[in-house]
Amino acid sequence: MASERLPSRSENYADWYNQLVIQSELADYAPVRGCMIVRPYGWALWENIQAALDLRFKATGHVNAAFPLLIPMSFLEREKEHVEGFSPELAVVTHGGGQELEEPLVVRPTSETIIGHMYAKWIKSYRDLPVLINQWASVVRWEMRTKLFLRTTEFYWQEGHTAHATAEEADAETLQMLHVYADFARNEAAVPVIPGRKSDTERFAGAVHSYSIEAMMGDTRALQAGTSHNLGQNFAKAFEIRYLDQENQLQYCWTTSWGLSTRFIGAIIMVHGDEKGLILPPRLAPYQVVIVPIFRNETEQKVVMEAIDRLQAELAGIRVKLDDRDGMTPGYKYNDWEMRGVPVRMEVGPRDVEKGTVALARRDRPGRDGKAFVPQAGIGETVRLLLEEIQQSLYDRAEAFMQENTHKPESYDAFKEVVQSGWADVWWCGEAACEAKIKEDTKATSRCIPLDQPDGEGVCIHCGKPARERALFARAY
């Protein structure tokens, strides 16, 4: 329940975000440093994200399973680059049952190693391939600086892990899942994203190629919103994941991994939220419509509630919340649900019942511009069309914002200015030293090399060397 006024989004974006997560009851701080408690409203949002993704995963042939939380330390040490990449973030269990363990156990930071161990056991022949498994789980990465949803020591996610007979199949899988994430972001979350390849510096530890979808937040910073990794044969060789091919020759598999986490809730908050609070996309919102009854006495209450019963029956299939809390004014409820971002508010009073109308208020258009009186007859279809209109409106607004704040500077001086408050789309040589100097000068990092590339070549924005690809640079979360 809202208890105090939110900080100004335009004046203090960070405080606005932190307070909004708390006041909207999405999450709260846990007693363990860097961890969060996801509250029922936040978990309902995550469940809707899970459902939308799970449907897509299964439509592409993937199945769900569960793997252990605790992983032998020796497993991580088998893939050198992997353990080096994760070692600063590991939480390690050294004692169990009152005794020191023979081998330390790592609390799962990601599951490539334990799954690789099992794939080596399960896969024997080309007939066993491909293996397409996903798991829904939590992972632990010992972060030094944390922020609710965006970067926490423990977070929830899904991680897909697949094994294939050929490099081409693994590459196709990696890109397929990247596009699944992009489709989800755009069509369910109304968040425009740029799919692209990560630079070698930003590549996942142990991967051959890493890809991501990058989203622009409301303060123009970038957020890596989902990743997909082509692991080549690195983990297959480390864990002896091999199969007999059709010529009866022993071959190493080609593997992939991909994941999207509760960090995406942070993206939804920052892409769509405004000074009044959350604005949730209708397809993911825990409640799509909140009904606020208005009455002054028991007689009016009876009339209004009877009408609401009829309306709720017509709204079947829509996620509806009736706010019949006692002792709170309609105005208080309006503000509370505005802050929580419910897409549509329906107000029903005795005059509305008499006229056969209801008031519908759109969350994406606060004030009079977003409020209209509509007939009660056919209310189900009216609300369904309105929810679709809001969904599209949110996407269009976010897309326009991203376009307005993505620039193509022609000089390094202009580049340095652009990335302080926007994205830079520039020719880049791809060299790590050049990337490091840009980060040192501007605090901006290469977000991705977009899959959609123009024809021709150019010169690197920083060093002036020939460049064959354009890259996005921005300051990021």
CATH architecture of the largest domain: 2-Layer Sandwich
The share of residues in extended strands comes to 25-35%
Oligomer class: single chain
Low-confidence segments, given as residue ranges, are none
- Order of strands, widest sheet: 3-7-8-14-11-10-9-22-25-21-20
The CATH superfamily of the largest domain is known as Bira Bifunctional Protein, Domain 2
Task: Please identify the structural class as seen in this structure.
Answer: alpha+beta
Q: Given this structure, which CATH class of the largest domain is correct?
A: Alpha Beta
Number of domains: 3
Continuous helix count: 14
How confident is the prediction overall: mean pLDDT?
96
Tertiary shape: globular
Distance between the termini: 28 Å
Largest sheet: 11 strands, mixed
Kindly summarize this structure in a few lines:
The chain has three domains: about 15-270, 2-Layer Sandwich (BirA Bifunctional Protein, domain 2); about 290-385, Rossmann fold (3-Layer(aba) Sandwich), CATH 3.40.50; about 405-475, Translation Initiation Factor IF3. It contains 14 helices and 25 strands.
